[in-house]
């Protein structure tokens, strides 16, 4: 999906990745992150957010909850993270990253609420009255009042499979009145998902119906119950191209993730300020019936993998780009498949992919590299897909 633009805009990353693999410094099934480019992207994102008076939390699941990357982004001024689940919050907090929002896509399990609230998250997103009550009771035990966001869902909203849940818009007031009885929580905002999506036919990022639900929910709470909201959180497809849209719809917060690595869908078709900063590196395992088989472990079913570059050097790889076969989500990704055709393939060749991923759901390693842009690349560390340093 992003191979062409990465070769065009960050070819040094590709060359570095090949050299690191061929020299044995990284293994097959490794994501290589260009830390310098990520920091530059973060600066641009922060500038755009400030210009539009939008607060942002960094999302780190797509880069494997990596604490070192999070620290570098925090130094730019994006100090707080959104944790897709409580486990991510624990990893980041252990390394000193402040937690902004936790619980949005994955609610906090009951027996983890105590531990998460001790991390002092800015807000916790809840899907139900029952979860709000659990949080309230634990917050009271800890002598605090926890600020919460309500995730709201309307009948016409888009909800991804595996992410269903939230307060039904038509029953929002009824639910909120119940939650307001609990002294341990304070409703400070609303959120939905996804607020924005890339439209490949039009080549633009567009509002979803969910964004309408977001603003309508905020209006209802402020008008009917006189609740002063601090946060109208509008996540999904948040990047330099869409931060102004958060402001335009009346939102206050965003949660960019792929924007830091330049792997936002719009960037595959139209150059954006964010430079591609991540590639997936593997190698040829074997060939069979006209296909080359590539060691897997890091493929992502929504990655839109279309092709890969194969070779033992950048020079050899540039003229050796192979079409990728579809990867079935019904099977384990032991191998990826490339159609050989008239290309030249050798066992052990480096394979470079650039696609949209979520590293935290893979079994890949993650190599952080700095100094690529200065022609002095050096590995800062090798991590697993959950942000733990391996070596």
Which structural class fits the helix and strand makeup? alpha/beta
What is the second-level CATH architecture of the largest domain?
Answer: Alpha-Beta Barrel
Instruction: Extract low-pLDDT stretches.
Output: none
Q: Give the tally of structural domains.
A: 2
How can the largest sheet be summarized? 8 strands, parallel
Gross morphology is: elongated
- The CATH topology of the largest domain corresponds to TIM Barrel
> Whole-number average pLDDT?
96
Number of strands: 21
Span of the ends, CA to CA = 30 Å
> Counting H and I runs of at least 4 residues, what is the number of helices?
12
Cofactor: pyridoxal 5'-phosphate
Protein name: Putative amino acid racemase
Keywords: Isomerase, Pyridoxal phosphate
GO cellular component, one term: cytosol
Structural overview:
The chain is built from twelve helices and 21 strands. It is an alpha/beta fold and about 400 residues long. The protein has two domains: about 150 residues, Lyase, Ornithine Decarboxylase, Chain A, domain 1 (Beta Barrel); about 180 residues, Alpha-Beta Barrel (TIM Barrel). The strands form four sheets. Strands 3, 4, 5, 6, 7, 8, 9 and 12 form an eight-stranded parallel β-sheet that branches. Strands 14-15-18-17-16-19 form a six-stranded antiparallel β-barrel. A two-stranded parallel sheet has the order 2-13. Helix 1 packs across helix 2 and helix 3 crosses helix 4. The chain starts with a helix and ends in a 7-residue tail after the last strand. The mean pLDDT is about 95. One of its GO terms (molecular function) is pyridoxal phosphate binding.
């Amino acid at each position: 999906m992003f191979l062409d633009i990465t070769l065009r805009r960050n070819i040094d990353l590709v060359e570095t990745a090949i050299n690191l693999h061929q020299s044995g410094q990284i293994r097959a099934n490794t994501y290589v992150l260009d830390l310098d480019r990520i920091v530059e992207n973060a600066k641009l994102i922060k500038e755009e957010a400030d210009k539009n008076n939008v607060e942002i939390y960094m999302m780190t699941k797509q880069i494997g909850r990596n604490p070192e990357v999070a620290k570098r982004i925090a130094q730019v001024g994006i100090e707080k993270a959104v944790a897709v689940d409580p486990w991510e919050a624990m990893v980041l907090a252990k390394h000193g990253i402040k937690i902004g929002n936790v619980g949005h896509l994955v609610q906090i399990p009951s027996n983890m609420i105590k531990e998460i609230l001790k991390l002092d998250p800015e807000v916790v997103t809840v899907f139900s009255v029952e979860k709000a009550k659990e949080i309230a009771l634990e917050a009271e035990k800890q002598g605090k009042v926890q600020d919460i966001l309500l995730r709201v869902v309307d009948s016409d909203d888009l909800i991804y499979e595996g992410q269903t849940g939230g307060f039904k818009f038509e029953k929002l007031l009824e639910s909120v009145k119940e939650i307001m009885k609990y002294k341990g929580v304070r409703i400070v905002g609303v959120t939905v998902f996804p607020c924005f999506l890339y439209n490949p036919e039009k080549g633009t990022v567009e509002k979803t119906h969910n964004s309408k639900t977001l603003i309508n929910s905020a209006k209802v709470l402020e008008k009917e119950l006189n609740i002063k909201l601090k946060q109208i959180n509008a996540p999904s497809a948040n990047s330099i191209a869409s931060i102004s849209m958060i402001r335009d719809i009346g939102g206050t917060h965003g949660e960019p993730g792929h924007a830091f690595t330049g792997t936002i869908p719009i960037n595959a078709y139209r150059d954006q300020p964010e430079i591609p900063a991540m590639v997936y590196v593997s190698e040829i395992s074997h060939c069979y019936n006209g296909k080359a088989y590539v060691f897997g472990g890091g493929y992502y079913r929504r990655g839109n993998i279309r092709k890969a570059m194969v070779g033992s050097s950048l020079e050899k790889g540039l003229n050796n780009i192979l079409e990728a076969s579809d990867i079935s989500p019904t099977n384990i990704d032991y191998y990826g498949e490339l159609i050989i055709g008239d290309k030249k393939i050798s066992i052990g060749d480096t394979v470079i992919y650039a696609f949209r991923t979520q590293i935290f759901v893979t079994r890949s390693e993650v190599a952080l590299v700095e100094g690529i842009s200065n022609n002095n690349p050096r590995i800062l560390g090798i991590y697993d897909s959950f942000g733990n340093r391996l070596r």
